[in-house]
User: Fold these one by one.
Assistant:
Number 1:
Amino acid sequence: MCDCGCNTCETKSTLMLNESLAPRGILSEGLKHHMDANKPLTDHLYRAGSDNYFNLWAEARSLYSREILEITHEDDLAVLTETDLGHYGMFEGKKVPLDFPMEDESIDEAKNDNKKLNKPMRDSSGGKAYKVYVKDPKTKKIKTVRFGSGGLRAKINDKKARNAFAARHKCSTKKDKTKAGYWSCRLPRYAKLLGLKSNFGGFW
């Protein structure tokens, strides 16, 4: 059904199965739910961090990579093409989820080679709300960029606040990933990965 309720205009599906390549029966119940409800994966059915949550992303990624599943939602595509959410890696002998922000960041800041670059996460240091590890093109070293504050969260879905922020900070000119301004201007794009609610994927 379309958003307006008239049931006559068409609403583009966010998830579409190519049944010429695979039958609907191969889908998990969770993926079927998202498809039937025309619900983006980033508006996730399962609790973030649960096994079902990671399994759903892994399933969607596998089907999307084989062109069995067509995905049109911008945020879903960003997760599938720019992150490894749904996959796991080994860190200090432990299996850990990739590209999933953790409340308590336990990685030793001196072990730069183990850090995931350009993936914002929550910052538990108390100074700023978020941090991201980036490689400085000048020094070739990895640095930590901290940005954002809890007070900004409520304004993500406020169009006037976003526009004012973008204008005030000249977000369209922010190109340097080693600066906090670059990441602050793009916070809405990573909102769902950070546990924030946002339907806006551009600049503030």
Number 2:
Amino acid sequence: MAADSLGNIYFLDGNGTFDTTLKSNGFPINGDFGNAFLKLSSTNGLRVDDYFALYNTVQESNQDEDLGSGGAIVLPDLRDKNGVVHHLAVGAGKDSNIYVVNRDNMGKYDPDGVNDNVYQEIMGALAGGVWAMPAYFNNALFYGAVNDNLKAFTISNAKLSTSPTSQSVTAFTYPGTTPAVSGTGLEGIVWAVENTSPAVLHAYSATNLAQELYNSNQAGSRDHFGPGNKFITPIIANGKVFVGTQTGVAIFGLLQ
């Protein structure tokens, strides 16, 4: 899940019932929001404040091709070329598409079933489904889908690039990878864990994912930290990288 500064919560939910008959306000008539991108308000208790659903949400649910495998991320305020500020969130699931929603008007559902009312949709942006969430750094979004390279999509005029602007040489096996970024200013490092045996921690230049700065296989077995595991997300703090393992935590730091 992700949250904005107003306390609204954003997430993608799994396959399930979606009421294609809508009330006058555009909400499902029975309050069933299966396979949708949801915004919850935390004012006066949790409630659905807005949503976006695919035009083919029922078919995706029936095929277990839902959005709920992926996580949402809230982007910082972005300005387009006319200076208009956009409040956006991003998510992707099993269908290999990236969905960018306007947090102030997410788009709801098209009852005619022919279009997606969404701020931006990048069809086939990823080679596989997403069982992870992206990372953001310096006007770029980083996605690690299943059996796909780690990909960077740059942001310009409050829109994502429709194709990756850089990508890693390595492709990540199931369940893909949830990257994390360290750094300040224009310089950053994108960290990602590969679910292999042994597991591999990779470090890439945030400005060009084709430039690998380090991986934990480079020094033979010195930096190995055991077999892989699903959904490992590196955490960076105090100049060290913390990586969860099947039995504990591996801590990476600079050589003395």
Number 3:
Amino acid sequence: MPPLTPKKILIVEDEAEIAQLVKLYLEKDGFRTTTASTGIEGLTLIKTDRPDMVILDLMLPEIDGLEICKRIRRAPDTALLPVLMLTAKAEESDTIIGLELGADDYVTKPFSPKVLVTRVKALFRRLERADDPKQTSYAYGTLLVDLSRHEALVDDVEIPLTAKEFGLLEQLLRQRGRVLTRDVLLNAVWGYDYYGTTRTVDVHIRRLKLKIPLLDDAIISVKSLGYKLSDQVPKK
């Protein structure tokens, strides 16, 4: 079997010394890298270079990291692109906003390059497990979803779901903790040839919550973007 192609990581960082240090350590560990020093350059490389992950500084010239993260998640072709934020800000609110906008992880400056590489590798492993096409069942609190049988059970009682409701639930479970835009959900569940509005997703999410009350607090609406399933199962 031919060797796997090394993952490509885009580093969007305006401080040249930090960018080069991160680049050096990632390449020592076998990753391929490209760098961008401004928000606009970063967005351009995301489209043209097709990286497997973006390491994104929050404080950038032209367009800041939060706006870049928002644009990544809004575009269907990059909505699932892994994003690891770098932030020098002390305010916890910036980190929270970044995670709500769909960042997968964050590292606060100053940081150890070795620790950053470890977090990158852990994120790739986590996402690869989440995207495992062989997984056919998911447990979430008292909810058990069996994809092979097309069944959703709460406390061993089957919940009748339509095909679209079941499809939405599957996508949220597969990408647990990640923001999924309405466009991504439409494409995944309804298909690329669907011409309805994104409000269709909202209607089906509301129905899903009504049928499975456990999901009422678990499915989080991310303003102007879409939805995510909380990593933490809400307590009864």
Number 4:
Amino acid sequence: MMLTKLTNTAVDRVAPDRAQAVRQVLAFGRNDLLCYRAGAPADLVERQAQTWDPLLEWARTTYSIDLRCGVGIGHVEQPDCAMTALEQAISRCSDLELAALHAAATLTGSAVIAFALAAGHSDAAEAFKAAELDETYQAQRWGTDEEAERQSRRKLDELVVIAKLLASMPAQAGLP
């Protein structure tokens, strides 16, 4: 079903209005999950740094996307040059890549994680781990919730399908 959904999205929504699809993925970069850090407890701060900093460094060196991070949930204004670089990278994607990129960004809350998945820098399990880092931490501290577990499994399943689709595609100009 997910493959059909992505293909239909590429044909029915991305192709007729690529600019809108690019803007939607770009919005995830403007408020990327990886840029909103905890100030405490120390072990969560460390986990975020260990997991998220390498992804941000990869985006910086691969795409010249140099995002700023902040502590807490207050808006972090991203540099214009980072947003321009992200927009250029997104725009180089094929319609199907763009549909998959949008789906991955929606699932993860991160344009950087989505690009890492799309480029083969991260596999689905790594993308899921990065996206669910805070939720995993909370579940380890306070216990799990059955509904949250179901949603997480669905998210991982969808990321696996997206990764397989992207891996099966010939290399495009947008993804190194």
